[in-house]
């Protein structure tokens, strides 16, 4: 026995059928619209193709007409020179003789897809070469003291035959292009008609789809209103969850800072012992070496070569390696401690005059700037509400890096500039130094990671410290550079440091 449907079930089924009908109608409308749009595009492209063909034909006709004009001009220049011996006619003749082959080549390029025209232009080029040769011969004869012609007229029989043949070929090319133009204009009109009809059908379909979409949208908006109220309550719950998660992240970050501090101190204790014992071993080498010298004087046979080499070469070299490694580890531990202390420091937001701050940074590095012959330019900088000490450390690190990695083949130049952009402050430090490989633009901000030739002192801490400080200030740091072209470091900060960003994390 079938169960009788409840009113809610009937409503739900009716809603589902209505939704399917709406979806099907809108989808069908958009499919038809897509088909119509495709047809319009096709018709438009066809129309554009025909337009290009028509333009091409007109261009060929104009080129042929221009060629005829050049032929007439060169003949007129020759006649003028033969009659008047005026060098200006000769200049016109020479210029036109250069232009004619260029114009023939242009027509050949334009008609390369038309076999009949290719044949004509090939014949035209051969006749033109002969014609120009005859004209030049007549001018040469005139210059040699002759008349420039073999008959009483200015054109001999061969000249006349060639000119007639050239005009005949020119007329044939123009007529062929005119026929093509008529056919292509007819095709273009047909294409425009198809485009117009297609566009009208598309407009009608667009109106139908628009009405259907508006009706479906109004129906959907009513349902969305109810859903929005539900989402609002969910968002309130989400905000409380985000607040709780943020507190957890802050506690985790504080724990990481404490862990880094503890680890650094725990590493320092055995490191100090190693450094101390290394110093004692180094001090013991001298009396041991003196003892070896004394034994060699009194009983040379007692000291083996292996013992002598161990005391005088192996031990000092090994102690040197140990001392270098411990000193490097000591610097790394100090760097970790600095980062840890900076992470625990409470930020103190305040109005910072970036022009004054940049001047102080440059003054503090003036000795190195003068020593390296570097020019430092500071453009007007905006004021920003942030932690002054953190920004000073960022700017100092960036300028020091620019001084450290100068290009050896040109004088150093560093520019500090800034501007406000979309509610943020951008500070840029640009140099003309060695540059940085684009593959390393992100890598250089990692802790203990460096890029390029390692011929300068450093442990890869500075830029990692810069990025950590930028993040704490609610900003970002990026690099734009290429090898051999200098580098630009761009610091983006909010115009005012939010109170929660200044809290201890």
UniProtKB/TrEMBL annotation:
Keywords of the record: Kinase, Membrane, Phosphoprotein, Transferase, Transmembrane, Transmembrane helix
EC number(s) per entry: 2.7.13.3
Domain (Histidine kinase): residue spans on this chain: 262-497
Transmembrane segments: 21-44, 192-216
Matching PROSITE patterns: HIS_KIN
One Pfam family here: HisKA
Catalyzed reactions: ATP + protein L-histidine = ADP + protein N-phospho-L-histidine
CDD domains linked to this entry: HisKA, HK9-like_sensor
Signal sequence residues: none
PANTHER family: BACTERIOPHYTOCHROME, TWO-COMPONENT HISTIDINE KINASE
Name assigned to this protein: histidine kinase
Species annotation: Jiella mangrovi
